[in-house]
Amino acid sequence: MTNTVEQQAREEMVRLGASFFQRGYATGSAGNLSLLLPDGALLATPTGSCLGELQADRLSKVSLDGAWISGDKPSKEISFHRALYQHNPACKAVVHLHCTYLTALSCLQGLDTENAIKPFTPYVVMRVGNVPVVRYYRPGDLRLAEDLARLAPAHKAFLLANHGPVVTGENLREAANNTEEMEDAAKLIFTLGNRPIRYLTDDEIAELRS
């Protein structure tokens, strides 16, 4: 890996973090981002960092085994990021936010744990497919990583109960786009409220997935 490639990855993480923060997808020091570098290490946002104030040279660099290589101390939630990379080779980046509508959705009782966003527009289906719900654990609990590891081979996105979304992608931009599409769908769910919704049929969903 060249220094140029890693530097570009650092700058992209800073830009996307700032964009999330400026548009209200992240507040305070909530949420974390990571991506897989060509050398097999992870680049991640440090513990307690504000996504709107990231510094490229202070981002955490961590091995897939969890060893802290350089930069500021990584978030305690890096364990579940590592689990996703280790159990899904297609995962090259992870976005975890506490964005308003997906976090609100994660707090509702009675969600379908196999798919929290029942398809009513094509876009979440095309981007990430089903969004399973992971049971509640306190932030940093290693059982969260264990549950995500189990689900990772078959899924691109997850809703952590009472916590918020975890979304993957083939790169950080794709993971960000996937997250924003899911947040928009969650906003539509609350906007529609109790009005009758025309959900997509099984045939329509199958066509999108094909």
Automatic annotation (TrEMBL):
GO terms for biological process: pentose catabolic process. One of its GO terms (molecular function) is metal ion binding. Transmembrane segments: none annotated. It comes from Chania multitudinisentens RB-25. PANTHER family: 3-OXO-TETRONATE 4-PHOSPHATE DECARBOXYLASE-RELATED, FUCULOSE PHOSPHATE ALDOLASE. SMART domains: Aldolase_II (SM01007). SUPFAM superfamilies: AraD/HMP-PK domain-like. Residues 11-190 form the Class II aldolase/adducin N-terminal domain. This is 3-oxo-tetronate 4-phosphate decarboxylase. Pfam families: Aldolase_II. It catalyses: 3-dehydro-4-O-phospho-L-erythronate + H(+) = dihydroxyacetone phosphate + CO2; 3-dehydro-4-O-phospho-D-erythronate + H(+) = dihydroxyacetone phosphate + CO2. The keyword Metal-binding applies. Belongs to the aldolase class II family. AraD/FucA subfamily. Keywords: Carbohydrate metabolism, Lyase, Metal-binding, Zinc. InterPro entries: Aldolase_class_II_sugar_metab, Aldolase_II/adducin_N, Aldolase_II/adducin_N_sf, OtnC. Catalyzes the decarboxylation of 3-oxo-tetronate 4-phosphate to dihydroxyacetone phosphate (DHAP) and CO(2). Coiled coil: none annotated. Its cofactor is Zn(2+). The keyword Lyase applies. Gene3D superfamilies: Class II aldolase/adducin N-terminal domain (3.40.225.10). Its EC number is 4.1.1.104. GO terms for cellular component: cytosol.
